[in-house]
Specification:
Elements (H helix, E strand, L loop, with lengths): L39 E5 L5 E5 L13 H54 L12 E6 L8 E6 L1
Length: 154
């Protein structure tokens, strides 16, 4: 579809005092392709003139309704995303405390393990043997005096 520019018709030259009985030629403005509404096209008439005309449009099939599950999913997606974002922000704020809590738990585990090692490694005494009591009496006179004493085993 070539786009021909409009050619104005020029009148014959006039003498100075002749009356002008017709208006001067007007150049017709062409519409840009973006300005043409849908369903309208440039057509060439049998006499060769080009003009805008409505053209038949193909029938479009009717739109199918959106399924209910798709609507529910579409409404649920932002809610789930918001919940995940809130949980992420909460974990970011709680991270230092969670790290300290994990270290405290590991320290508690290490303390319990050390206590278990001490309990298991210590030799066990026989329960039928009585405990030994040692008493000691020491006496000394003066700062550098000789000390004497007795030891009693019971």
């Amino acid at each position: 579809m070539p786009d021909y520019p409009a050619r104005p018709t020029l009148p014959e030259p006039l003498r100075y005092e002749d009356a002008i009985l017709y208006p001067p030629a007007v150049v017709e403005r062409r519409m840009l392709p973006a300005e043409i509404p849908p369903g309208v096209q440039y057509v060439t008439l049998p006499d060769g003139t080009r003009t805008l005309a409505y053209t038949p449009q193909p029938q479009t099939p009717p739109a199918r309704p959106v399924p209910t599950w798709a609507k529910t999913t579409a409404l649920l997606a932002p809610t789930v995303g918001g919940g995940i974002a809130a949980a992420s922000a909460g974990l970011a704020y709680a991270a230092p405390g969670l790290i300290a809590l994990a270290e405290a738990l590991w320290a508690t585990v290490a303390l319990i393990a050390a206590g278990a090692v001490v309990v298991l490694a210590r030799p066990r005494r026989a329960t039928n043997r009585p405990t030994t009591h040692i008493t000691q009496h020491v006496t000394a006179t003066g700062l550098f005096g000789r000390a004497t004493g007795t030891i009693n085993h019971r």
